[in-house]
Amino acid sequence: MQTNSPTKNYRQTVEIPAPLIFIGKVLQFFSIQWAANYAAKLFYTPFKFKVPKRELPMDNGSIQKHYYVPAIQKEIIIYEYGTSDKKILLSHGWSGRGTQLVKIADKLLEMGYSTVSFDAPGHGKSQGKATHMLEFVAIIHELHKTHGPFMAAIGHSLGGMALLNAIHQGLPIPKLVTIGSGDVIDDIMDDFIERMKLRPEVGQAMSRIFEKRIGKPMNSFSSHLVAKQVHIPVLVIHDVDDMEVPVKAAYSIHQQLPKGELMITNQLGHRKILGDKSVINRIESFVKIPCHENVLS
């Protein structure tokens, strides 16, 4: 069922280590601002994971390059997979990697495309410890200038949110696929503060920290808001059993898209969905159809 207004639609399942929670609570006792600064630093820090065996073919078969992104003054790793001039951009999610969408990338290679992906700062093989969604957005714009044009883009989780925002800002990509994308940023931050076992005032102070840095409300980057101005065909894919980004996010985003299609799956969760055959087949069909033939679902 589609909802008329966005509700809380994000929860994280990765447990925050008890010592980090303890430090936050001690800081909170002395100063809300100290606790907010500490929470903001943790909020920007992804977990790094070893490349799993299933991603090794793409890891070994891609051309990998260090690339400096002037807009964020950071160096990242870029993956060029395949040799076709028909390129598709892939964007991983939080704590992901440039090879995370390997099964989708392999299908795209079979279809005659090549893919360009990246490790965001603090992710995969890229240096650094901290990043945030707006740096993902800046990287996407940079890759369009240096490695585009792209015939489509596919984003998982935070990568989907970043692509929606980039297109809202004018990124000229003909088609978009989002998989397990989050939505309301206020909900993401509230959930984080709750898991840190900190008071709501700390979350409010953390929001002010972010908004001072970027000069506008963080919630203005929420997916359902920017989706209203995304006028290209968009396929929104989400699983009912996603325990990191509840399926309500997909309904909220799809409801606002002028040219949206929606695919809801079952029992695939937040990551298994990336390798599911039915999902990959739907992406294949969506990418192959000329833009003017994509219809609303």
TrEMBL record:
<feature type="domain" description="Serine aminopeptidase S33">
    <location>
        <begin position="84"/>
        <end position="170"/>
    </location>
</feature>
<keyword id="KW-0378">Hydrolase</keyword>
<dbReference type="Pfam" id="PF12146">
    <property type="entry name" value="Hydrolase_4"/>
</dbReference>
<feature type="domain" description="Peptidase S33 tripeptidyl aminopeptidase-like C-terminal">
    <location>
        <begin position="228"/>
        <end position="287"/>
    </location>
</feature>
<protein>
    <submittedName>
        <fullName>Alpha/beta hydrolase</fullName>
    </submittedName>
</protein>
<dbReference type="InterPro" id="IPR050471">
    <property type="entry name" value="AB_hydrolase"/>
</dbReference>
<dbReference type="InterPro" id="IPR022742">
    <property type="entry name" value="Hydrolase_4"/>
</dbReference>
<dbReference type="Pfam" id="PF08386">
    <property type="entry name" value="Abhydrolase_4"/>
</dbReference>
<dbReference type="InterPro" id="IPR029058">
    <property type="entry name" value="AB_hydrolase_fold"/>
</dbReference>
<dbReference type="GO" id="GO:0016787">
    <property type="term" value="F:hydrolase activity"/>
</dbReference>
<dbReference type="InterPro" id="IPR013595">
    <property type="entry name" value="Pept_S33_TAP-like_C"/>
</dbReference>
